[in-house]
């Protein structure tokens, strides 16, 4: 574990929306990339990878001593678990360097059946303090990707109080909402950001009596000036956001931060002019320092600016038939992506340059000072600014097509004795050949020479894994003879590979079958009395508890510098007021509560529970995470009384959860829920509306420093049989409301 205050070289981790972007990232200096497959990843709008693409990438990365992390970081419904097992089994066969996860059910499945696969906690897991890191560590997670809205000061404290690796974002687009908390896209149309399908409603224009603007559109994060300081925090990995970005963006940003990190390791505290110029030339929104400090919260929202700014490269002289004439101020090339905009805040036109003509001649590019014709099938206004938001890039089609797939590793145990060589493999059994050995006079065959020889597989699908060797004597064998033996061995292995494929398929089927049996074999439902579901005598903070309080709803967010105070308050209400019932809204609360005696908990919004394996993982945390003093007669002192079905789920998914859950299931059926929560200072408060006429309420909570966005529509759902209905308080500011059933009657995408 790296210590804070010590400068250490962090991993530079780059996004890869497809195979081309991954190779570009590596060639630009990335130590590792993170990518996703066609499902179960938080960027399903990216091109993403096939299993063959992933195999090629892992082969390339292995040869170049780089790392690949697979994002499997979405919430998984109960009925999706069988499909998830197939993905996980195939991923494990390819042996990536880690799996990035959000859903606790996926954590449970991987730790139970694929313990050799390292796990990283996604930022979507909403870990934002050292207690959350401790919970992740107890689940067998080796790295936590922290919540983006953690300040640098809080990061220093978290790192000091944590034992596993930490990863932070250093560049790219920022979500306005706290991670894992945004329901905005899902509320509007069932397209969930927690399942990789966000439609980014936060980037839209909103209207109010006090003015209009893009009230939730955050500037992009850029950290070139902060790298030297961040390297002293003990953070293991610096992450660049952007799996939806094109290769030109990846090349520039990765290349810039490679320079900055390497310079910082040599003692340079300020970024070079070269690196800064590379970042300036990269299409983005306006840059900010993100959530690096509480002061930075105030300048994060750019309410008057819409979308990606890009690099200014000219003006529209005047529109003409099938396009427009442009006065060029910076190179424009065929294949570049342009944005045409008259005034800041106006809607813009976007196009990919297909044709450039100068003085009647078709050319590949136009440079500073040129006046050219650019073909376009949209109307563009005279005098509009032209911004470049993406550059043409070599697609490396031939290179990608010729990348080899990852070869299957075969462990070898070689025994060389007089006139005989034997090779034991677990996959193909024992292989024996006669070989003429002679007493060595000068250079006997060594363990190293055997390793070097047999590691040079001539197979396109097999390669040596671990090689061990024993030599019973000092022998001389001509190199040509050893090579002949090697070719014969690998040739016979290749001939048997069909059988190996069949055996591998059988092992995969057996693994999937075992996982499915595990999923189906849910523990019998406990008979537990119903909770105080209507919320009476409940307080939303331990600070406000009285003797009449029967349960406490814990705060979903607790900054690291407030964590010890919260722990003391929880301990005080338990010891002094006798309160034993807590509603757990975030992962970080579990390690705190298991240190106390005779505690009962209910998992409550916004803690996401979508499947029964997540419930098993929570129970495991309670059973395995308690200290000895909280165990009585072998029992567990902290008891899980109920879980609340994740509020985004549709009726079918809730029914499936209820059917298999080992504990009672609550269901939020009525009230107002925040569809966005942020530490950023939002430049509006009160009622706002969007282009579709929908109304929202923006409320700032001074105590927590968090701003919430609510729909004025009241959540009102039918009660699913077998659930315990729960209501939240309605907003006093909303007098009349058109009820919403959210996703209850539509499938959550």
Overview of the structural elements:
Mean pLDDT is about 90; it is low at about 530-535 and about 625-635. The longest helix has 24 residues, at about 495-520. β1, α1 (about 20-25) and β2 form a beta-alpha-beta unit. The protein has 4 domains: about 10-175 and about 220-295, Alpha-Beta Barrel (TIM Barrel), CATH 3.20.20; about 310-400, Elongation Factor Tu (Ef-tu), domain 3 (Beta Barrel); about 410-500, no CATH class; about 540-725, no CATH class. The protein is globular, with a radius of gyration of 29 Å. It contains 19 helices and 42 strands. Helices cover about 30% and strands about 25% of the residues. α1 runs parallel beside α2 (about 50-65), α3 (about 80-95) packs antiparallel against α15 and α9 packs antiparallel against α10 (about 275-280). About 45% of the residues are buried. It has about 750 residues and is α/β, with parallel strands linked by helices. The two termini are about 40 Å apart.
Layout of helices and strands, plus pairs?
Blueprint: E1 11-15, H1 19-27, E2 32-36, H2 51-63, E3 67-72, H3 81-94, E4 98-101, H4 104-113, E5 119-121, H5 130-138, E6 143-145, H6 152-160, E7 165-172, H7 184-189, E8 206-208, E9 211-213, E10 220-222, H8 227-230, E11 237-240, H9 247-265, H10 273-280, E12 287-288, H11 294-297, E13 311-320, E14 323-328, E15 332-333, E16 337-341, E17 349-352, E18 356-358, E19 361-363, E20 365-366, E21 371-375, E22 385-390, H12 397-401, E23 408-417, E24 420-425, E25 429-434, E26 438-439, H13 447-455, E27 462-471, E28 475-476, H14 479-495, H15 497-520, E29 538-539, E30 551-553, H16 560-577, E31 581-584, H17 589-593, E32 599-603, H18 612-624, E33 631-632, E34 635-636, E35 638-644, H19 651-660, E36 665-671, E37 674-678, E38 686-689, E39 695-701, E40 706-711, E41 715-716, E42 723-727
Parallel strand pairs: 1-2, 1-11, 2-3, 3-4, 4-5, 5-6, 6-7, 7-11, 10-12, 23-27, 29-30, 30-31, 31-32, 32-35, 35-36, 36-42
Antiparallel strand pairs: 7-10, 8-9, 13-14, 13-22, 14-21, 15-20, 16-17, 16-22, 18-19, 18-21, 23-24, 24-25, 26-28, 33-34, 36-41, 37-40, 38-39, 39-40
Helix pairs in contact: 1-2, 1-9, 3-15, 4-18, 9-10
């Amino acid at each position: 574990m790296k210590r804070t205050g010590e400068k250490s070289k962090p991993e530079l981790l780059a996004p890869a929306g497809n195979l081309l972007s991954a190779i570009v990232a590596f060639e630009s200096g990335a130590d590792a990339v993170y990518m996703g497959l066609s499902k179960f990843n938080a960027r399903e709008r990216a091109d993403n990878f096939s299993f063959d693409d992933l195999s090629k990438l892992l082969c390339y990365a292995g040869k170049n001593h780089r790392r690949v992390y697979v994002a499997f970081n979405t919430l998984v419904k109960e009925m999706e678990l069988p499909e998830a097992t197939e993905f996980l089994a195939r991923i494990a066969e390819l042996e990536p360097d880690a799996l990035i996860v959000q859903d606790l059910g996926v954590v449970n499945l991987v730790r139970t059946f694929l313990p050799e696969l390292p796990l990283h906690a996604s930022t979507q897991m909403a870990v934002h303090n050292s207690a959350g890191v401790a919970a992740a560590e107890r689940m067998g997670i080796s790295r936590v990707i922290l919540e983006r809205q953690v300040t640098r000061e809080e990061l220093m404290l978290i790192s000091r109080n944590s034992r596993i690796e930490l990863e932070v974002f250093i560049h790219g687009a920022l979500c306005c909402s706290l991670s894992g908390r945004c329901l905005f896209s899902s509320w509007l149309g069932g397209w969930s950001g927690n399942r990789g399908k966000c439609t980014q409603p936060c980037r839209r224009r909103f209207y109010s009596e006090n003015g209009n603007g893009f009230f939730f559109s955050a500037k992009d994060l850029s950290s070139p000036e902060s790298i030297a300081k961040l390297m002293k925090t003990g953070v293991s990995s610096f992450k660049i956001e952007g799996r939806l970005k094109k290769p030109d963006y990846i090349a520039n940003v990765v290349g810039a931060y490679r320079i900055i990190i390497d310079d910082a390791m040599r003692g340079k505290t300020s970024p070079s002019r070269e690196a800064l110029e590379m970042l300036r030339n990269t299409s983005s929104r306006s840059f900010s320092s993100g959530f690096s400090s509480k002061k930075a919260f105030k300048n994060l929202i750019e309410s008057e600016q819409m979308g990606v700014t890009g690099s200014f490269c000219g003006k529209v002289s005047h529109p003409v038939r099938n396009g427009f004439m442009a006065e060029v101020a910076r190179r424009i090339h065929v294949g570049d992506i342009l944005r045409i905009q008259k005034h800041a805040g106006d809607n813009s036109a976007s196009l990919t340059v297909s044709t450039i003509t100068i003085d009647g001649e078709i050319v590949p590019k136009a440079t500073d000072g040129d006046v050219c014709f650019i073909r376009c099938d949209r109307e563009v206004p005279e005098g509009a600014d032209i911004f470049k938001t993406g550059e043409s890039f070599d697609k490396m089609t031939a290179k990608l097509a010729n990348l080899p797939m990852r070869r299957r590793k075969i462990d070898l145990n070689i025994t060389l004795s007089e006139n005989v060589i034997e090779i034991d493999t677990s996959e193909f059994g024992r292989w024996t050949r006669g070989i003429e050995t002679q007493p060595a006079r000068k250079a006997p065959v060594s363990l190293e020479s055997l390793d070097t020889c047999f590691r040079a597989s001539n197979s396109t699908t097999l390669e040596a894994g671990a090689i061990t060797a024993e030599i019973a004597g000092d022998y001389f064998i001509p190199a040509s003879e050893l090579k002949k033996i090697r070719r014969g061995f690998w040739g016979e292995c290749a001939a048997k590979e069909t059988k190996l494929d069949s055996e591998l398929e059988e092992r995969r089927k057996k693994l999937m079958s075992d996982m499915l049996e595990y999923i189906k074999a849910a523990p019998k439902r406990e008979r537990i009395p119903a909770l105080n579901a209507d919320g009476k005598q409940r307080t939303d903070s331990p600070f406000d508890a009285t003797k009449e309080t029967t349960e406490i709803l814990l705060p979903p967010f607790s900054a690291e510098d407030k964590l010890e105070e919260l722990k003391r308050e929880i301990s005080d209400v338990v010891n002094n007021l006798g309160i034993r019932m807590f509603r757990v809204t975030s992962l970080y609360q579990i390690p705190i509560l298991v240190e106390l005696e005779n505690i009962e908990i209910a998992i409550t919004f916004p803690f996401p529970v979508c499947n029964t394996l997540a419930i098993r993982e929570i129970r495991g945390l309670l059973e395995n995470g308690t200290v000895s003093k909280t165990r009585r007669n072998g029992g567990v002192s902290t008891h899980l009384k109920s879980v609340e079905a994740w509020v985004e789920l549709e009726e079918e998914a809730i029914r499936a959860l209820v059917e298999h859950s080992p504990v009672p299931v609550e269901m939020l059926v009525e009230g107002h829920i925040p569809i966005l929560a942020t530490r950023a200072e939002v430049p509006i408060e009160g009622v706002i509306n969007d282009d579709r006429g929908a109304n929202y309420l923006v409320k700032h909570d001074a105590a927590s420093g968090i701003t919430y966005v609510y729909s004025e529509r009241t959540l009102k759902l039918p009660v699913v049989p077998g659930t315990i209905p729960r209501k939240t308080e309605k907003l006093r500011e909303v007098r009349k409301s058109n009820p919403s059933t959210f996703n209850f009657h539509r499938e959550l995408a």
